[in-house]
Amino acid sequence: MASDFEGKKLVAIGGASGMGFQTAQNVIEKGGSAVIVGRPGQKLDDAVASLSRSGSAWSIAADLTNRDQVVEAQNQLAQNHSDATLLVNSAGFFLPKPFLDYEVADYDSYHDLNRSTFFLTQTIVRGMIAAGQGGAIVNVGSMWAHQALAVTPSSAYSMAKAGLHALTHNLAIELASERIRVNAVAPAVTRTPLFEKVFPADQLDGAMEQLSGLQPLGRVGTPQDVASAIVFLLSSASSWTTGAILNVDGGVMAGRN
């Protein structure tokens, strides 16, 4: 039986590592292809080379905090990948900081990323509508958009991710008539390169072990844990689901141990 993803193209914004990369890998393994939009550099090149061993993959290099580079990425998507019917918005970073320590540049770094997500999504949706085949979008939100944790003060990050959750609801309503479904996942602590910038390398294992206790299931998540949920939301198995924020969080939103 043919896979849901046979012949379909995924755009993974921020897909050079972590959840986005794992989602692209899963889609390619199921017969699809993937376009990875990420910061220029070896990491992006290596990601696409790795994906290309399983199927078709392309890269678009762009610093998502640079408006000119985002416009160029939009142009490349419109010209070369308007046939994409799947999108995952997985770009993000996480640098906990007390509210009173924020400077304007810290705040802007989060919300510049939301701006890029908004307009890159707009470009891809235009292609979906023009093709008339419908589509599926999954945004990677966050448990921190639902709850604050004293151990990780993250007001600007939480504010930005809450905005992404709100965008999910709005687009689900606006795009339903075009048969474009829009959902989100809200992970808790997941071991991805995002946390490598939070903790020094020699402290990462210990920090992950300590944070495991936050999750009732007793461990932090993996990229595959979240990618599995994303792939479900991209697939026809969730064809009657839109506007959902799916908690993929080891049980954190249900309660604490």
Task: Report on the architecture of this protein.
There is one protein chain. The chain is α/β, with parallel strands linked by helices and 257 residues long. The chain has seven helices and seven strands, in the order βαβαβαβαβαβααβ. It has a seven-stranded parallel sheet, with helices on both faces. α1 links the parallel β1 and β2. It is globular and about 45 Å long. The mean pLDDT is 93.
Helix content: 40-55%
Query: Which structural class is indicated by helix and strand composition?
Result: alpha/beta
Mean pLDDT: 93
Beta content: 5-15%
Summed up, the helix count is 7
Find the count of extended strands (DSSP E, 2+ residues).
7
Shape: globular
C-alpha end-to-end distance: 43 Å
**How are helices and strands ordered from N to C?**
EHEHEHEHEHEHHE
Strands ordered across the widest β-sheet: 3-2-1-4-5-6-7
Point out poorly predicted stretches: none
Fill in the keyword field for this structure.
257 residues, alpha/beta, 7-stranded parallel sheet, 7 helices, globular
Question: How would the blueprint of this fold be written?
Answer:
Blueprint: E1 9-13, H1 18-29, E2 33-38, H2 42-52, E3 57-61, H3 67-80, E4 86-89, H4 104-131, E5 135-140, H5 155-175, E6 180-187, H6 204-211, H7 223-234, E7 245-248
Parallel strand pairs: 1-2, 1-4, 2-3, 4-5, 5-6, 6-7
Helix pairs in contact: 1-7, 3-4, 4-5
